[in-house]
Amino acid sequence: MSASFADGVYAIVRQIPPGCVITYGAIARVLGDPRKARQVGWAMALTPAASEPIPAHRVINARGDIPGGHASRRYRLHRKRLEAEGVVFMADGRVDLERYLWLPSS
DNA sequence: CATTTGACTCTAT
DNA sequence: AATAGAGCCAAAT
Known about the structure:
Elements: H1 5-13, E1 22-23, H2 24-31, H3 37-46, E2 59-60, H4 73-84, H5 97-100
Parallel strand pairs: 1-2
Helix pairs in contact: 1-3, 2-3
This protein binds a DNA duplex through helix 2, helix 3 and strand 2.
């Protein structure tokens, strides 16, 4: 069976409930290697359009923000979707990790 | 096969 | 507080 890191990432991201978010580091940690945070990002970046069930917009960085800057297209998309799910963004344009960070197996 | 790069994170300066 | 550097790994070229 496939043991690609991306597969594990997708498996977790797919299980993120609405109105919740998760960080790259958290995913990597759950997968067993907290240092693979970058690869999580890679997996997300590769998230093909065919991966619709994969809510990549719920995946953010350790700061509760999105890399690339708030001017990035994905930031607006993520924010819009998260807000649609009831997630409230802070004035900084960040998500309150303390409040929305979701961990698998919970 | 070697080099580059990237949606990260942490630590140090 | 902000910036810079290092660590780590996989996919792309």
